[in-house]
Amino acid sequence: MSCGCNKTRKMEMKKGHVFDDGGNTAGCVDCVKSHLTTARNIIKDAIRGRVDRYRVVWHLASAANKAPKSNRDLFEALLDARRKFQRDGVIPDWDILIQLLSR
Q1: Rounded distance, CA 47 to CA 56, Å?
Q2: CA separation for the pair 82, 73 (Å, rounded)
Q3: Which of 11, 58, 74, 75 is the most buried (most CB within 10 A)?
Q4: Structure confidence by residue, pLDDT tens digits, 14-60
Q5: Per-residue pLDDT tens digits for 51-103
């Protein structure tokens, strides 16, 4: 479950509010957790023979996009995890990502 921050953002944009942040809000920890959980579950399913690598890459990229701007280490770790998974199939270290998320 996510917090619905994108829905709120779209409603605000319809009201005429302008967001000059390159498409990234201040960050949403709940959304990052949601995307990491989904990516992890897709990878678990891959062990059982079902894999959708593109969805994993998308969720890791979305988690990086939702990372709070104040937590640059998390943002960089998420980008690195996405790149390594996309290029080489390296499964992210979930524990490190969750630790960085809780900072």
Answers
A1: 13
A2: 14
A3: 74
A4: 555 444 444 445 578 888 999 999 999 988 887 666 667 888 999 99
A5: 678 889 999 999 999 999 899 999 999 999 999 999 998 999 999 999 999 88
> Which one, of 59, 60, 50, 99, lies nearest residue 83 by Cα?
60
Residues 23, 13: Cα–Cα separation, whole Å: 12
How many other C-beta atoms can be found within 10 angstroms of the C-beta atom of residue 95?
8
Q: How far is CA 37 from the centre of its chain?
A: 9
Q: Which of 79, 75, 82, 83 is nearest to 100 (CA)?
A: 75
Read off the tokens for 53.
């690598």
